[in-house]
Design goal:
Blueprint (H helix, E strand, L loop, with lengths): L1 E8 L4 H18 L2 E8 L5 E9 L3 H10 L1 H4 L3 E9 L5
Antiparallel strand pairs: 1-3, 1-4, 2-3
């Protein structure tokens, strides 16, 4: 199943994101379940969140992946939402 993970950063948390970016990217690489991902941008073009599409067996697997993400462990996110997603185009 595919799961979309939407994450909104806490206000004024860009430095937390930058400090943990390498570990976050290593987590993506090591786990092998991310189909696509990228930062959300604010009106100034600054990173302010994440959109990640996971390919996992269960929603529980997606929750576990999100909880182990170094960004989440560092307290970057104000809000996270996980929802099953069906790929239609692309």
């Amino acid at each position: 199943m595919r799961v979309a993970l939407f994450c909104t950063d806490k206000a004024n948390a860009l430095q937390i994101r930058l400090d943990n970016r390498a570990a976050h990217l290593a987590h993506i690489q090591a786990t092998g379940v991310v189909e696509m991902a990228g930062p959300l941008l604010d009106a100034n073009g600054e990173m302010c969140g994440s959109l990640i599409v996971l390919s996992v067996e269960t929603l529980g697997d997606a929750r576990a992946w999100a909880a182990a993400d170094p960004y989440a462990l560092a307290g970057l996110f104000e809000k996270t939402t996980l929802i099953e997603w069906k790929k239609v185009i692309g």
